[in-house]
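Late entry, evening session. Most of the bench is empty. Finally got around to the prediction I had been postponing all week. Sequence below, unchanged from the version circulated by S.P.
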Amino acid sequence: MLRTEVVRDPAGLLRLRGDWSALCAGARSGCLFLSPEWLIPWWEHFGAGRQLSCVAMFERERLVGFLPLFSEVVRLAGVPVRRVAFLGDGATGCDYLDVLAAPGGEVEVRAAALVALGELPWDLCDLDGLWRDSPTALHLAQLFPNGRAVRASAAGLGGAPAEVVRDARLRFVCPHIPLAGSYQEYLQGLGRRENLRRREKWLFRQPGVSIEVARTPEEARIAVERFLELHRARWAVEGGSDGLADARHEAFHRAAVRELAERGWLRLYTLFAARRPVASVYGVVHGGKFLYYQSGGLRGRTARVRLPPRQRGLQGAVGPRGALDDPDAALARIARQGGPGRAAGGALRARVGQGGASADGARGGAAYPADAARAEARGHGAARGPVARQCAIVERGAAGSAAGGGDG
């Protein structure tokens, strides 16, 4: 039988950090957004007014399961409710959230996590970002048929007697790009490959065009500031970015980038034209997968003013780049969309699947990270199919009565 412990303070998270990182690396559900390298900086910047409620599961002294949660009081329809949610919940765009379990122990860990979850005080358990096709989501669907009141004890939840209603909604479908074979083979599958090739040939005939990739903490310190400036520039004409909405979000990414660089996972690309930074792609390599997280770039008059006469046609829209002499330093290509003056941007986040690639489309955009991902994931097979985020909303009412609908 597993021993469970609820981690309620940052010191507890730091104490578990090494074992948590190893568990994430080995778990079938492990991903960047469940790692301490991402979630500890997240808590440091977004934890104010919230209570850590992480569930750690041990087999003797070995950490075999971890459910990263926090709790807070929110108002729904003017009524204060106690809400439990994943660490990473909210504007930083975390996907594929789940419970971490040591391989072979998933069933026992899920059962222990349910008992511990039921013992936490909550009215609303909001599991936004749970992967729809994960065993955890399927298990919850079996225990709690959608929209039907179920006794907590009958479904394995611990705590006081209560009835629970599950309201599961498909919120975001995540497009993906499967990577297989060579870059040239990838190009053959593109409908506008000749246009792409013309643009990249033109671009790299211009003076002062180069690509840099930041991997180390020192490189990242400079590159992240360039990225943030380019991201602000890209979204300024549209009222600002939802993904990096304020100084708190920017501070989080500075901290996260440093953590990622220290682990060797960061791939922060900058494209220079006329020796000025004009586009940036924020990527991460984790578990043999390339994740395309965010981008930024100049657009419109800002880009035209900075370019010399020979380069005015660029107009801030960076032409796609093919294979480089050093393919490991390749930039995720950015294709122009919407006519002159429109540079790539948006918030595509990429997930290279089990040996392949996938890109999560949060807002759409014009980025194709195949070159960088191909360099990082060379030799892997095809990706698993399209994935989706599921918002699983579980509400608990008093015993003998079903809770009403909720808003996640």
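Two things to note before I forget:
The first strand starts at residue 3 and ends at 7.
The CA atoms of residues 31 and 359 lie 14 Å apart.
Will write this up properly tomorrow.
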